[in-house]
């Protein structure tokens, strides 16, 4: 598979509009209704995430003559595999206030607003809180994406919330690539069809080719999808109806997805709006890379601890940071989907890869009890025994019980590499919440919030200067 990956990189170099895809070694076999047994043999599967990519992937595979010349044998092209796991909303989330002071302007009438849920109970943790990213154009909402706050990290001894970058940027990029950012006031329909969820397509487009032929001839008559028998339910569905209050996120921070940060988007927004294809930006400052993170200072700074319990009212445990864990064996893990909501899984030995826009992400693959619902991106993964942070979920398989996480070591290294020189990044230490001597209730810590906002503003200013 290593040689296969090297060749994939070689033949995909310079190609534009490559979809999200992955490759796996699986056992395959076919049988008619009269057969009493099936003979299985190993085959490489090339998996694509959305059926709108079907023709492009098959064309890509047909053009890759090295597959047979170099002894890889038959290759099957099928729908499936990992994809960035945000959730589109079918209706507007209620209770959100779009205050221009908190919005993030890309120019040309484009704005992004972030809101994070306020837990209904007395909770000091940010782990697994739902994050809603809303994109507007000329005052009209174009779409919303749900993901999760992973937890709190310490940047120069100041607590900062961390989540994925694609949960915020991917919707914007899809709008640009799909040509929705135009001078009209239309309200695009939300694409959240349970039968075919087109979330997280990573810049899909409709291939106009008339070539419908399959690439693998002995797959004729066979389904090209691996989700023919869907699981009865998906775990971890974001429930926005139960959220009574949202807080606007202060949009001074650092976000990076595929090597693109928020300052890059500001600088290039006029090219997006003028329909310059994403891959054809002249002299742009983007350096493609497998980055996927976002840092923000939260207003509810008393919610800065990394604690969770397995069920409402259960005993709390703290997330810790221990030395690097071995990748040579499988480990029992916990996926944190809220301060009082977790799922169990098994982190498989070794590493996995998948490709988004020609960029390969190297991840750890986790098997869960059932497929995770869209919207799990950003969730933290910890070891089952020591509760040590292992990484952050960035992708999931549709109708297969697997998710992918970027490791803690890689996540922290990417964040530190994007910060100004001298910035330190660690897991936030446990901090006792401040209390009022009069009421005994938890109160905000204004100084902590101002310090966090100040650091984020400094980072934003540094990035602007870098691109000027």
From TrEMBL:
<feature type="compositionally biased region" description="Basic and acidic residues">
    <location>
        <begin position="186"/>
        <end position="199"/>
    </location>
</feature>
<protein>
    <submittedName>
        <fullName>Uncharacterized protein</fullName>
    </submittedName>
</protein>
<feature type="compositionally biased region" description="Acidic residues">
    <location>
        <begin position="207"/>
        <end position="219"/>
    </location>
</feature>
<feature type="region of interest" description="Disordered">
    <location>
        <begin position="186"/>
        <end position="223"/>
    </location>
</feature>
